[in-house]
Structure formats: C-alpha cells, structure tokens
Amino acid sequence: MFKSESCKIPENVGWIGSPERKTAGLPIETAYFKLLFDVTEVKPFRINISAFSRFCLYVNGAALLDGPCKGDKWRQYCETLDISASLKSGRNVLAVKAAAYPPREAMNSAKNNMGPMSVYSNSAGPLLILWSDETAAVSTGQADWYVANDTAIAWNQCQRAIWMGSMEEVSGEKLPHNWQSALHIEQGFEKAALKLNTAMLYGEMNLPRLYARPVKPLLRINAGSLHQVKGFGNFIFDEKTNMACLPPNGSYKMLLDLGRLTTSFVELPVSGGKGAKISIGYAESFGRQSEDVWIEKGDRADFTGEFLGVFDIYHPGGGKEVYKPFWFRTFRFIMIEVQTGAAVCEISIPLLTETRYPLEDKVQFESKASPWLKDVWEISLRTLQLCIHETYEDCPFYEQLQYAMDTRLEILYTYAISNDTSMAGRTIYDFHSSLLPEGITQSRFPSIFPQVIPLFSLYWVLMLKDYYMETGDLEYIRGFRHTMGGILDWFENRKREHGLVEGLDYWEFVDWSDEWYLNRGIPTAVKKGPSSVNNMVYCYALDEASKLLELMGDYDESARLCGQADRIRRQLDTLCWSNEKQLYRDGPGFEEEYSQHAQIFAVLCGLAKDGQAKALMNRVMTDKSLVRCSFVMSYYLFRALEKAGLYELTDSLWDAWKMLPAMNLTTVPEKPGSTTRSDCHAWGSLLLNELPRKMLGVEPELPGYAAIRIEPKALYIGGIRGKAPTPFGDVEVEWKIDNGRFAIKGYTPVPARLVMPGGQMYRLDKGDFSF
Fold first, then answer.
1. Topology classification of domain 494-645
2. Which of 148, 267, 425, 551 is paired with 762 by a 20 to 30 Å CA distance?
C-alpha cells in the first residue's frame, strides 16, 4: 500500500535562507548554502533534506542528490540519504545549491523567469531545511550555515518548451567555483538566517507540511558517450583528448549525437575562453516546425532540417571550469555553438549522467517467428523509462507533466513488466489531491497552472479499478470513494434534455486524430450537443466504480450507479445508433459523423455486446471513412477487439510500431506518422502490456493475483518463449504452432488456469505444465 508519512522534525530545526533576498520573489532566485563540520569517525550518517523549489546536494564536492521529489500546494517532500560514503575524518563540506521558482501569481503575461509547470512554488525564496538523526552538528537553525545569493545566472524563457520553464544564461566569472569542496567560507557568503520555524502551535501552515519521499530514489547512471556528427559544423574534438581548442575571435559550431534519447545531467568542461559565449542546445531530433504544434519529422538520424532544440548559454570566466545546468536535460542531439573573444577557448565533450525512476523490466522473451518484437520492445521500454521520474510524465522534453489519461496507460504498462505499484499508489493520491471544489479532478497534477479535461477524471476512476486488480488492496481504494463519487456526480449533474451529459465547460479532448486536430482533439459533434464518446466513457467509469462499491459493501450506491449507466446506454442506443450505417454516431447531431472511438467505447462500456460488438469492431478495422485513433487510443482499440473476440485483428495494427526502428527512433513518438511533436510519449508503449499479457498470455484472473490466467491470444506472432512477472514469482511460457497444432509448456509458481485457443480450460497446479 502507498503511504505518505509526515516527517518528525526535531525541535529547533527550521528553514534557513539569505538574511536579505535579492528581490521579492519575482524572478527565479538561486542561493548557495554551505556548512563546514568535523567528523571524528566515519560511520553511518543519515541526513534529511528539502529546499524550495529544487536543490542539488554536494558532500565534499561530490554531487549526491537532486531533489526534492515533486510535491504540491499542501505537501513538500523530504529526501533521506546516508552520506557516510562521501565523508572523511576531519573537516567536511556540506553544500547545497537551491533554486526558488516564483509562484504563478508573480509571473508576468510573457511567463518570463518561470520554473517548470510541474514544480510547485511559493514566494518564500530559496530556503533550505536539513537535519541528521545522529547529530545536531549539521541541522539548519542550529549549525553555522552560510549562504550566498547568486548573481551569475539569468533565466531565459524558451517558447518551444514553455511548460518546462526557463533555460539558463550563466556568467562563469560570477560563479563561486569550487565552493562545494573548498575547506573555507568564500567571500560573499554570510551567515544564513532562520526564516521559518516548523512548529505549528496553532495549526498554521506557513509552508506545505513536510513528508517523507513517497517513491524510490532516481537512478544516476552513466548515459554513455556522445559522438561528433561528421560533416556538421566547423570544429572537431581531438580523438585522444576529447577536447577542442578554439582560436580567438571566431565562430564555431558542432553537433554531437548520443544515438538514443536520454534524460541526463550535462557537464561541460571549459578552460580559458574569457569573453566567449557558448550555446549548448538540446534536441530530440531535427525537423521542420510549422506554425502549429506538430512538426514534420523523418529519419531521426537525419540532421538536415531545423535543430528543434532548447538552449543554455555559458560565458566562461577564463579559468578551468565545469558548467552544469541545474536540472537534467532531455535530448539525443547536443549542438554546441561558440563565439570566442580575445582568448583561446578549450572545451571538452560533455559528460552525461542519466537520471530516471528505477523501473525494473522483469519480462524475458524470445520469438524467432517474430523478430520485430525485440526492437519494438526496446523502443517501448526506453519510452516508459524516460517518462517516469518523480511522477509519471507525458513527455520528458516538452512538459514533464503528469496527465491522468497518459498516466493510466503508463501505470498499466508498469504493472505488466514489473508488478511495481509504488508509483501508481502515489499517482492515485496525487490526482485525489487535485480535486476542485466543484467535484472534478484536474487533468494534470502537480501543476501550478490548473487544467481540466473532463474525461481525464474518468480515467482516474479507471485507475482505481486497475490498482485493485493488480494489488487486491481494497482498503487503499476505499480511501478515495468520496473523490470517485464526486467525479461521477459532477458528470451526472451535467445531463441535459437528451438525458446525456453535455456542455462540460472545459477542454473536451478525446484524441489527437487528424480529423479533429483543428478542433484541438475534440470530436466535431461536441459543437452540436452531447458527445457519444464522453457518455460512453462515463458509462465505462460508472460500471467500474459500481463494482468497487459492491466490493466495499455499499450495495445501494453500486445499484444507483448501475442504473445511471443503463439509462445512458438506452439514450445512446436511441439517439446515436444508425440503422443505415450500422454504427454509432459521434453524437445525436444532425450530421452523420462517425469515429473509431465511438465504436470502441460502445463495446467497452457494454452498449454493444456479442454479435453486435463483433460486427462493430470489424467495421472499425475496415471502414476507412471513420475518424481514426492515434497512439493514445490504441490500448482501448486493442481492448475492444479483445472483448469482441477479435484479438487476432490486432496483427495489422502493429505496422505503426514496426516502422519506428526504420526511422531511427529510439522511443515511441506522441502520434504515428511523419508529423508529431514529442518523440517520447509512453502512452504509445503498448507492447509492454500486450507481450506479457496477450502474447505470453499471463495476467491476474482475480485481484492481487489470487488466481492467475495463462491465455495466449496473439497467435499471429507464430510462437514465443519467455517469462512474465507476478508477485509470487515468474510464470514461464513457451508456445508454438507446429503443423497447425498449438503446443504450450511452462511453469507457474502458484496454481493457475490455462485457456487454450479453442477455449479448452485446464487447472494447473504449481510447477511445470505441458499441453
């Protein structure tokens, strides 16, 4: 079960900051905190640390931790770390760089000097709290901490990725170089002041309450080496030294390629170069940016188009320096442009430290009959890895925001490959915390700019059922029943004359289908009245919520929700079914508008059953006039085909993924085709679910894997051997089709049910099996 425990802060420990701030919280503010302390014997030494809004912790010059974990308006997270491995006998240095982003209310209309939208901020400025459970010698409010306000860093808004906040422009001459390791207090530092005590004697909340980190620490691993792209630019690195020596008064450019996408901290060693300007650009790919959000892209190894990047700028101070942007960057390509002054500038190839959530891939497989699975799996896995840091994210380059629609799918993929439920539990709590007074959750959270996409609240309801199915933990879900009920009541209160919900006020987004693009992903039918899809997804959520309530023993409320769903289904059948087309319209408007989406959710919400469901899904696959799904809806398309008994028709749908390796993509893009924005959107990592659950065929039959079902459905792959994880151990499966005969064998760690392609069922005891 996910738990978020408040921190027990010792007495006399408080938040410290500069005695006098540079400004009153309007731009981004940076401060450097430093403490010298003595250690007589190196032994376990745990510290607890948090800062506003972000920090980097150094011990004796070594960067150990970046944080804190993203919180929200009501909770600030605290990191706990044993630093003993970096300590030494005698004098030691604790150093913390903190950047405080301004609150939304302090931003101007141009959003200059803003931080990432996903990081909560306030007007308190750069503040630090730190203590050790072993000693008071390092505690803020007690120990002799010093602080210096930064004067070196300016922040430039980047319009290409405005959601990510500002990029840096740094004067190396003004930086306190080597302050993290120097055994003295530098000029410009002054004693830190106690700004806020943590005691809440009368319940006041001067700052968000401090809680222990709710999820695992992020990985910090070597990201590999960048390679120079030959024929691009006018300077090269020496192959032996990995350094380039750039003469005075010149302009130089070069391009580096990692060969794959990464989310990494970047360090650029520089020597000399006083008066130079170094621009470091980070891009997923090259392409051709049009006036709208989508970008024309082709082969991702092709660099003949526009460099679609964001840029940091560094002005060397003239010494031997290392420039490290404060937070990690997302990129495959790095472009370095240098305008030298009167001095020679030497720069080295940047060093990369990848950071991401420690997602464990427990699936193993081999398929000689379908070798494409390996490449698509690696691409899909890489995508999910890069879309999880302290929360799930829609994309690492443009936004790093946690959206409920994206996240529901990312959670399902996480379950399938690792049975990891900790981030899912945190996510459920996050969206519960986003609840608005009117009863609906925000579509993305945490976010300093609230946004509502009504359907996304319903996807959160589906998350609850998913979590229960994966864990069997009904008690955790019980804690969110009122939030769930408020969401469903919000929709029920928006029924109008048709007996359907409509006029949802906010962004009624469904999918980035090409036909709906100019309408911002909204079905055209919304302009004329109720949307079939909105009502079908509402029915889907009502049904899943009613099952949860029944399990909780609230039979009356469960029956009430079932009745609501039945009434909507009857209205949809009456108002939206076309006898002529044998399809469901997108709404009861006057024009004949049809989409794959309406047919898919008609099946998933139980409106279309049995033979009708099968007929609908056959039309979905053959009728080219229907508005088509993009990657985000593919999961629901697969589920509707499966529910209709047509899973074999998913074979042709994999073509959109099979083309990704040929385009030199190392992650799944936001949408299929040659126009996309993000190159990394984990809602498209569908194979992570389908391979273990439908190709190997292993999934929970009862909540918490109280019973396991083994039922391979993707027979079109020809055969596969592998392992799929469960909380009780791996299930091993090997099946093939030999002369038209299906043969399967394997191992199950607990009793299971085997379902053969013809429908025959066998009860399996723990151990080996063969049929």
1. Glycosyltransferase (1.50.10)
2. 551
